[in-house]
Amino acid sequence: MEQRKKIKLLVVLGIGIPAIIALYWWLQPIIDHFTYNLLPLKPETHLGEAINFFFYDTIKIVILLFLISSLMGVVNVYFPVERLRVYLTTKKMYGLQYFLASFFGAVTPFCSCSSIPLFIGFVQGGIPLGVTFAYLITSPLVNEVAVAMFLGLFGWKATLIYAGSGILLGMIGGYILGKLKLDKYLSDWVKQIQDNAQSDANTWEEENTPFIDRLPSIIADGWGIVRKVLLYVIVGIAIGAAMHGYVPENFFTEYLSEDKWYAIPLAVILAVPMYANAAGIVPVIQVFVAKGVPLGTAIAFMMSVVGLSLPEATLLKKVMQWKLIGIFFGTITLFIIALGYLFNVIL
Amino acid sequence: MEIKVLGTGCAKCNSLEEVTKQAVAEKGIEATIEKVDDIMQIMSFGVMTTPALVIDGKVVVKGKVPSVKEIKELL
Fold this sequence. Notes:
B: 4 strands
């Protein structure tokens, strides 16, 4: 990169990063001033409260989403899936491979259209099916959008629980699916690839582009993710903000409270057809929790929304027989339900 | 020049095709743009993340949709 461009980039970063942090820090007073002094709204009214909440949350989440996406972009530049594949096939891991696959499923940006090439890529490299499943389970479950939304709306504790349990679910689910010896239920052409798996196909060339030259595209990609989900974020938070002001306290408790045993399975089943993205759904879940639904039930619901999607199931049909897809989704469903109960007991 | 857009048919893959077409048109060069959506063929290029862009048999972009400007530089 030219010297002049480099200096320009550093200046932009030098001003931009502190500005973003300052905005994040003083966001509540700024938004309060905006809604109650500049707009003719009163803090005691439902409308005032809802509008304040809407602007505050939207801006906060956009900032978080941008920062987290950029951070994940940095990880992906230095540790792309090709490199993960090399690690998984060439190193002795003693069980750690499940963690590694699941963890990287979490930090890589998920696109359901990439899941098939990834699956084949892993099989081609001779990676066991269980480890591949570990990646495949966590990848949609824990993604940058879900993490940013959780962080913005539930705080860091709930986010850690969500991300941690998502990774754990991938590890355990992958391990168990691996033990079940399900290779025979793969599609025939995938079995052929598996038989011809070669670990020497696993090359990974490091690009020696300096970090500063990559930064513009990392930031642009991070912003691209924000732009892509911005509309959903706004709609989701608007619905959430409206519900906040008008839905009475403890409205949902009657159906989804802790002492109703069927609450969690019901939440999970309700979530399956809602493969809306995380951006739209988390603000609504936040209202549920604020109005009395236990966090475990909410997390189970959230995981089912993003982790159990019908479009993904039909995509997987290209590489698996229906029976394996059934076992795969069945296992994830059971684990999500179990996690929901567990959280409702311990949280 | 021979350009291939690899993708299983998701929204991102379609936008990569459009961006590529635009870059080729803006640069005014002779090029054939082919969309590859067969998973077996995609895998033969050794990519694990789609969409991907192949120029004259070499994978130049994978797992993202670059800007028109970036593609023009690659051409």
